[in-house]
Amino acid sequence: MIKRALSVTREANFAEWYQTVIAEADMAEESGVRGCMVIRPWGYGIWERMQRLLDDKIKATGHENCYFPLFIPLSYFEKEAEHVDGFAKEMAVVTHHRLISDGKGGLVPDPSAKLEEPLVVRPTSETVIGTAFARWVQSWRDLPVLINQWANVVRWEMRTRMFLRTAEFLWQEGHTAHATEAEAREETLRMLEVYREFAEECVALPVVAGEKPENERFPGAVATYSIEAMMQDGKALQAGTSHFLGTNFARAQDIKFQNSEGVFEHANTTSWGVSTRMIGGLIMVHGDDDGLRVPPRLAPWQIVIVPMLRDAPEDAAVVDYCKALQKDLAGLSAFGEPVRALLDLKAAKAATKRWGWVKKGAPIVIEVGGRDVAGGNVSVLRRDRLYREDGKLDSAVVAKGKFVGGAVAALEEIQSGLFAEAKARLDANIAPAADWAAVEAHFAEGAKTPGFLEVQWSKPTGAALEKVVERLKGLKLTLRNVPNDAAPADGACIFTGDAAVERVLVGRSY
Amino acid sequence: MIKRALSVTREANFAEWYQTVIAEADMAEESGVRGCMVIRPWGYGIWERMQRLLDDKIKATGHENCYFPLFIPLSYFEKEAEHVDGFAKEMAVVTHHRLISDGKGGLVPDPSAKLEEPLVVRPTSETVIGTAFARWVQSWRDLPVLINQWANVVRWEMRTRMFLRTAEFLWQEGHTAHATEAEAREETLRMLEVYREFAEECVALPVVAGEKPENERFPGAVATYSIEAMMQDGKALQAGTSHFLGTNFARAQDIKFQNSEGVFEHANTTSWGVSTRMIGGLIMVHGDDDGLRVPPRLAPWQIVIVPMLRDAPEDAAVVDYCKALQKDLAGLSAFGEPVRALLDLKAAKAATKRWGWVKKGAPIVIEVGGRDVAGGNVSVLRRDRLYREDGKLDSAVVAKGKFVGGAVAALEEIQSGLFAEAKARLDANIAPAADWAAVEAHFAEGAKTPGFLEVQWSKPTGAALEKVVERLKGLKLTLRNVPNDAAPADGACIFTGDAAVERVLVGRSY
């Protein structure tokens, strides 16, 4: 059996494996502040790459970035009843603006500095951004308003898990206002498609894009769409959402405009977000028993050069050779950007560094020793094919020029290979289920890689929907989404026996 | 007299002019949340450019970005007495994590969801990052730790002014730990120099880099350095600071390591920050009576193309011509990046758009009408030379090819011209003052563009320094910094009459 770099395998304990990857790949750590994590350099570097690539797409579709306040006065929340019901249970509330000594060497909030109106730390910004939209929008000429912000938000979660559910997290939230329902609905779907494309092209994360059922809607939304990814344990991760808000928020916040006939109308608004949760998805889709594997488009460093030094006079020649290699690589362009090549000169053993980069998931690790320099070679380790069939490390000695000449193609191959692997797994683990019994059998105790089941249903609402949700809960299942590309219904609803109107995915979820 | 684009001139009322530029140039607005502003697209676009350029320099000097929690437990602050004294008076305190209905349609913090330990919204992150450093640093091999974070911070200011002093603001804060005092001091000065270079090269903002006197030190620092810029009203703006913290924070937070002899030592730490305040400096240094002038390196759009349309069939040809021009310009490279050229197709009159871009300060505005298309020309308006001597707009008709061929040189000229203009003003308004009477005379009631005075002093400390500070306060003056490149002292201290040890700048400040 091959000895792997991590102390726990995915098969032995997926949850523990996830935490181990996060620690060993230098992604994040507990901060000591309840529910908040420290995002470490490699993890934050991946987030910066996500930001750059997604931001380009958000700007290319006509949106501009702004920044809105962290704090939201309580009264803003009171206006949209459904929205506050959805969020009020888990918000951080600022009540004082000063500390004073408690007389015992400690500090306490100063009773004389109590805020007249408490402030909420934003859990999402519809209310505060809507208030700005109400100021900005007077005439149909002011529409559409197409805004995005990159920010931190806070939701007081009881049980937290790094990247997947933390009290504070980082995200982008887009907010738009339109003159007509049709335009706002088009925008909602446009951004869902931007998310699908970003997830699949950049994160190499295959997803199912579709509409969430009524019970899974964003509080206050008319329709919520999501991209759903499948983790290696078969569970679903909602990796991005796009909401059509109708005129619900516009009515609460008085976003109205004079149309071309001079009549006042409420705007139709949308909102959409992707967060650091996507990093959790990346780990659980691409990680293996040696650590993380980062798709080259997201890798802070795509190629890492590790010189094998011996504290000897020959070291200088090895370092010079590595510097020239780094320069050659940095002159290349992959995915429309300069190749990111690092020369790792930290004070540590070459083997320690090599395994460090394997665990971090750098796509290609190059080792260079005195013999490589003499022969004009490099030793190449590709993260996507780490071992040979005999279980030995698949490190190949290649002529330096040949490696440089093929480096861009190798990065492209790793990117598409990671996607293909995940896509094959997703496709293999979505199956139709003809009736409730089939669902029960599939998700029975001990079933492995349960994946998603596609079932036909009559799309019940209200109390009838609640009954369905309860029934699914008994199997620890939730409704994921109605895939945009699902076939039309042609049978009976597995819950009610009525004629089905569409196909919906069910699965276990994070 | 030339009719200018703004309703108020700098000379008539500098403070009102500043607010007017912010409004008319689409920079920011009041949010309705006390002390917090909304940063609008053009303002945020400038911040994004600042982030990109400064981040490149921070990374080039070996720092990695991370992200640390927004919330800091009270107990973290209690450890560093001087630090908490400096900040405790103005922090937002989170005391509850849930809201409930007040029974009258409103919301109140849920008394049953009171936090055991209140959380402070970070005013700066030394304490929480230091706690992480204590986990990360064990051996001399772990040093230096070179970290930066881009984040929002909150200081509960009583009087706020957009960009200059807001309760919430955006910044980067660098934090480093080193094995020796010498290395940490070197880092402190290295980052001061990075700030000077960034301010002068990118923001076209000439600054004086130097050490702040003892009374102006960051709470808990051993030494604080700053870059000081001079606004058009002669006042000083501290535009960036770099702090050598010695072992003060390391002792409070237990950041210690085993040196190469196996002995435990406390690390020496530094911190340094630049914030959205820099945008206030940009406005007050480069703005004029027609609005903002943005240095090309920071302009979200460097060249804006305004087609002059008449709702006529010829419009299509004008738009096509503009699109081709935009493509030509986007293919150019200025300051090592692709030229950012916008084609403004919004539904508004060409003259309205032109003046909108003038007020925003886009470096070059191109207008294209049917006659320009017929002649193969463009009408060019440069923001740095808006009017001819006769007071008419200096819009020049130029052959399209000639304009494109000279566009990069024009952008470079605007960038260096803005710097030269500001630098000449700074130099002209720093003067030596031989004695206290000269200081009094210079800053007498009604004195215009007071600028900075350089005085010799004996660098008093403690109570003697407090007396100096009080005396300066009588003239509304503060000690700015001791310029790194100041000549050695050669006279008497203007405050005490003792032999002077150095030269220090005094001035009025924001």
From TrEMBL, chains A, B:
<dbReference type="InterPro" id="IPR002314">
    <property type="entry name" value="aa-tRNA-synt_IIb"/>
</dbReference>
<feature type="domain" description="Aminoacyl-transfer RNA synthetases class-II family profile">
    <location>
        <begin position="4"/>
        <end position="295"/>
    </location>
</feature>
<dbReference type="InterPro" id="IPR004499">
    <property type="entry name" value="Pro-tRNA-ligase_IIa_arc-type"/>
</dbReference>
<comment type="subunit">
    <text>Homodimer.</text>
</comment>
<dbReference type="Pfam" id="PF00587">
    <property type="entry name" value="tRNA-synt_2b"/>
</dbReference>
<keyword id="KW-0067">ATP-binding</keyword>
<dbReference type="InterPro" id="IPR033721">
    <property type="entry name" value="ProRS_core_arch_euk"/>
</dbReference>
<keyword id="KW-0030">Aminoacyl-tRNA synthetase</keyword>
<dbReference type="GO" id="GO:0016874">
    <property type="term" value="F:ligase activity"/>
</dbReference>
<comment type="function">
    <text>Catalyzes the attachment of proline to tRNA(Pro) in a two-step reaction: proline is first activated by ATP to form Pro-AMP and then transferred to the acceptor end of tRNA(Pro).</text>
</comment>
<dbReference type="InterPro" id="IPR016061">
    <property type="entry name" value="Pro-tRNA_ligase_II_C"/>
</dbReference>
<dbReference type="InterPro" id="IPR004154">
    <property type="entry name" value="Anticodon-bd"/>
</dbReference>
<keyword id="KW-0648">Protein biosynthesis</keyword>
<keyword id="KW-0436">Ligase</keyword>
<dbReference type="InterPro" id="IPR017449">
    <property type="entry name" value="Pro-tRNA_synth_II"/>
</dbReference>
<comment type="similarity">
    <text>Belongs to the class-II aminoacyl-tRNA synthetase family. ProS type 3 subfamily.</text>
</comment>
<protein>
    <recommendedName>
        <fullName>Proline--tRNA ligase</fullName>
        <ecNumber>6.1.1.15</ecNumber>
    </recommendedName>
</protein>
<keyword id="KW-0963">Cytoplasm</keyword>
<dbReference type="InterPro" id="IPR036621">
    <property type="entry name" value="Anticodon-bd_dom_sf"/>
</dbReference>
<dbReference type="Pfam" id="PF03129">
    <property type="entry name" value="HGTP_anticodon"/>
</dbReference>
<dbReference type="InterPro" id="IPR006195">
    <property type="entry name" value="aa-tRNA-synth_II"/>
</dbReference>
<dbReference type="InterPro" id="IPR045864">
    <property type="entry name" value="aa-tRNA-synth_II/BPL/LPL"/>
</dbReference>
<keyword id="KW-0547">Nucleotide-binding</keyword>
